[in-house]
Amino acid sequence: MSFTHGQGKVFDTVEHIRMFGTALRKTGKPVVLVPLGKGLHAGHIALIRAAKRIPGAVVIVAYAGPESDHARLREELIDAIFSFNPATLWPHGIRVEVSGGPTLTPLGSEVTKVLGLLGITGATDVVLGEKDYELVVLVQRALNDLHIPVKLHSVPTVRMPDGLAISLRNVLVPEESREVALSLAAALTAGAHAAEHGEETVKDTVRQVFSAAGVTPDYVEIRGLDLGPAPKTGDARLFAAITLGDIQLHDNVGLPLGIGFKNIEG
């Protein structure tokens, strides 16, 4: 097929995007899916740019947001936009769910949506953000256990200068609650810098920051990189969430538990 990179051609049916992905796979090019929801922000642009850095990649952005955002997506010189409607793709909801195992936040439907979009687009690669670290782990687990030949690439969380992670939920936080919201990033940062002293000290440090901000966290957890129990020494992931009004904000950071950043060589 004749193909020119960077045109951002819009596909709005399963049949057409499937034909596009299948044809590109036959050329041997990596077909990279960036699955997005209904909103667009700087974190999503970072995912798209990471996808474009994969050598020879054909980048498909699956986007459920308004058509008015397509021009911004095209500015990134992507190759295709799959303009999908979840209600059309899954008119009866997600009836077959891949759970991926226990998590702090139920994510079975999100894992299943990613797998569904991979099936529709025929992608060879998928790019996800570490802001949703649990989703990254669960999708990788599903790819492994179901023997799906897709490579997952994760991208570090994009943050505002004040440390707040860029996400659609954080945008909804009213201005008068922003300082309280900042306690989430501050608590995680403080906890990560206490990593060399072990799990309980990290958790205590996080809770102290929340307490000083007058915030009661929904949870503070440390897990292994596979979401299992945290190691006594080694790489781990620190998770926390707070609720402001009817909005739950959650965030996470990596930390060298029992080692500390200052003890890492080089």
TrEMBL record:
Listed GO MF terms: ATP binding; pantoate-beta-alanine ligase activity
InterPro entries in UniProt: Pantoate_ligase, Pantoate_ligase_C, Rossmann-like_a/b/a_fold
EC nos: 6.3.2.1
Pathway connected to this protein: Cofactor biosynthesis; (R)-pantothenate biosynthesis; (R)-pantothenate from (R)-pantoate and beta-alanine: step 1/1
Sorted UniProt keywords: ATP-binding, Ligase, Nucleotide-binding, Pantothenate biosynthesis
Family named by the database record: Belongs to the pantothenate synthetase family.
PANTHER family on file: CYTIDYLATE KINASE/PANTOATE-BETA-ALANINE LIGASE, PANTOATE--BETA-ALANINE LIGASE
Gene responsible for this protein: panC
Cellular component GO terms held in the UniProt record: cytosol
GO biological process: pantothenate biosynthetic process
Protein name: pantoate--beta-alanine ligase (AMP-forming)
Reaction equation(s) it catalyzes: (R)-pantoate + beta-alanine + ATP = (R)-pantothenate + AMP + diphosphate + H(+)
Keyword Transcription regulation: no
Organism phylogeny: Bacteria, Bacillati, Actinomycetota, Actinomycetes, Mycobacteriales
